[in-house]
Structure to design on (185 residues):
C-alpha cells in the first residue's frame, strides 16, 4: 500500500500493481472464485489509489500547473467512470454473464487513465513542481491510502474539503465490512 519515494514514484508503483492484478485476473479460470477475489483486490487498490489522488494530487495539480483546473477535472472524470464500473462489478458474481464484460471495460478505462497520467500529467509535475513538494505529496498519498475507503462510493465528494473529511470515516466502515466478510483477505 505504501512504497516510498515522491508522488510520481508512489503512484507509478501502484499502477504496476494494478497491471499485475489485471494479468492475474486474465490467468484465472472464467467464473472462478479466484476471479472474484482478484476483482475485489483490484477494487480495493483502485479505490484507495483514486481517493488519495483526489485528496492530494489533483488539488496540487490545480495549484501548481498551468491549466491545472482542466487537467484535474479530466482526471476526476476518468475516476468517476472507473468508480461506476467498480460499483457495477461489486454487485456481480464471477459467474454473471456481465462480470467479464465489465472487467474488460474496467481494464480499458484504467489503462487509458494510467497511460495519460504517466505520459502527460507526471511529466508536467516533474518539470513544473519542486521536488520537495513532490516528496511531500508522496508522503500524503501514502497516509491517505491507509485510511481510504476500500469499496466504490460513486456519490461521494471528490474535491476538498468534503472528500478529506468523509473518506477516513467511510474507509473505517469499509474495512470493518471487509474484515467481517473476509473480503480482501
Amino acid at each position: 500500500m505504501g512504497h516510498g519515494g515522491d508522488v510520481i514514484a508512489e503512484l507509478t508503483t501502484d499502477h504496476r500493481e494494478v497491471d499485475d492484478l489485471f494479468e492475474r485476473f486474465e490467468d484465472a479460470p472464467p467464473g472462478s472464485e479466484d476471479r472474484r477475489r482478484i476483482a475485489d483486490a483490484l477494487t480495493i487498490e483502485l479505490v484507495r489509489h483514486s481517493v488519495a489522488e483526489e485528496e492530494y494530487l489533483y488539488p496540487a495539480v490545480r495549484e501548481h500547473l498551468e491549466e491545472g483546473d482542466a487537467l484535474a477535472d479530466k482526471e476526476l472524470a476518468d475516476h468517476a467512470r472507473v468508480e461506476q464500473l467498480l460499483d457495477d462489478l461489486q454487485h456481480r458474481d464471477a459467474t454473471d454473464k456481465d462480470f467479464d464484460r465489465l472487467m474488460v471495460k474496467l481494464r480499458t478505462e484504467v489503462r487509458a487513465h494510467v497511460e495519460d497520467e504517466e505520459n502527460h500529467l507526471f511529466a508536467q509535475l516533474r518539470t513544473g513542481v519542486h521536488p520537495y513538494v513532490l516528496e511531500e505529496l508522496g508522503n500524503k498519498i501514502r497516509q491517505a491510502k491507509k485510511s481510504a475507503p476500500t469499496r466504490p462510493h460513486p456519490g461521494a465528494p471528490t474535491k476538498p474539503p468534503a472528500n478529506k473529511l468523509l473518506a477516513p470515516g467511510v474507509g473505517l466502515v469499509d474495512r470493518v465490512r471487509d474484515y467481517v466478510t473476509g473480503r480482501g483477505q
